[in-house]
Amino acid sequence: xxxxxxxxxxxxxxxxxxxxxxxxxxxxxxxxxxxxxxxxxxxxxxxxxxxxxxxxxxxxxxxxxxxxxxxxxxxxxxxxxxxxxxxxxxxxxxxxxxxxxxxxxxxxxxxxxxxxxxxxxxxxxxxxxxxxxxxxxxxxxxxxxxxxxxxxxxxxxxxxxxxxxxxxxxxxxxxxxxxxxxxxxxxxxxxxxxxxxxxxxxxxxxxxxxxxxxxxxxxxxxxxxxxxxxxxxxxxxxxxxxxxxxxxxxxxxxxxxxxxxxxxxxxxxxxxxxxxxxxxxxxxxxxxxxxxxxxxxxxxxxxxxxxxxxxxxxxxxxxxxxx
Length: 323
What we know:
Layout: E1 2-7, H1 11-22, E2 26-32, H2 36-46, E3 50-51, H3 54-59, E4 63-66, H4 73-82, E5 86-90, H5 97-110, E6 114-117, H6 124-129, E7 138-144, H7 156-171, E8 176-184, E9 193-200, E10 205-211, E11 218-225, E12 228-233, E13 238-246, E14 256-259, E15 265-271, H8 280-294, H9 302-321
Parallel strand pairs: 1-2, 1-4, 2-3, 4-5, 5-6, 7-10
Antiparallel strand pairs: 7-11, 8-9, 9-10, 11-12, 12-13, 13-15, 14-15
């Protein structure tokens, strides 16, 4: 079992602590939190060992799970890598692309592994259909959330939209050609509502909308590709695959057939993949243990996290250049 330690015992950090404790692939050694009072409170309430020194915790483990505020990701990662520890780092990977690039470079030089916590990659609805997604040409995402003061210290792009950016980059096998975006700060100092359009060199276009002041929660993505429409509801963990194929010469009474102006007939059929229940955060943490133990590539690499941050930063820069 890999010895694991958590940096940060806030809302998400406590979830990671609980899951690492119950995992068969890790031995939870303990955690560090810069807020000593909070650290001692979490230790008293849950029984996890609190380290009052970040260096002592890093020295005691094989893998460091970084769940601190984004501004400290870079420093925490460098401390862990310098001591030869594997790092799991929550999204966004760092505060700037330059910091992310530095972590990637040092990680490679020290021959340790890193994974970024883009948890939607492990959403069972996405897993159920990702092998059906081939060269999508239009993608539309809506990620809406009711207001929550937690997370409003960063733009909604880094808080919410970055999940969808990572998913899109994972399925579109092409370089980004152009980005345009607009955002509005309603209740925070940074945009609470944002819309972005990402154009890829292969012609694919993605339209992303994110809001953290919505009246309802929504996390839906739709993929449009040749002969197929795929819908993923990340919140409800549901998916739908609608495909078209050449219609049979003698369609059945219940077959759905469309005919275009040229007389070509296509049959519409539905594929509803089975969606097993899972805990996506536990799965991502345990997938990282597998990558370490088997010396394989992590599911969400530091490169993936860096590219998602790069696109997110470009979107935010579009806001800043508008008068």
